[in-house]
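Message: A physicist's question: would you kindly supply an amino acid chain plus fold tokens?
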Amino acid sequence: MHFNTLRDITDSFNLELLTPIVQVSTKYTNNSQESNLVIDLMFLHTNREEFDKHIISSNLCSSSNYAPLSVNIIIKEKFIQDKKQTIVKNSIDEENFVNELKNRVECINLVNTPNCKMLEKITQEFTPIMDEHWIKHLKHVNITKHSKAWWNKECNRDLSSY
């Protein structure tokens, strides 16, 4: 009965009972009448290669009668963005950026645009101009919990990771 309950709980969390790399006792008794036991229950997500085996460290029992179980979990270094480039909403920089782009768009001659390829060429030529104005007006902003004006789901993800 307890086994079924334990199995149901581990299944609900997508966990599996791991197999130790070397099968040795995990409980050591001081009583010569009793035998040493293997009680090595370790449950982890086993869909990852680094979680598929664990170690029974029988040499680390010290004052306890139980050997510790351990698994190596590799934590990879990950870049976590803590700054964003933005043009502050409702700022003079935003107003100038929009006005400069508007002026540049108004200067584009679309009269001689006979087909989609020509329009695509004009668009591609405009992209670096837009980038130039963006860079001119952007601000480097630190991501904090108070940076709500431009905060989005990506920011929440990055902050949670950080």
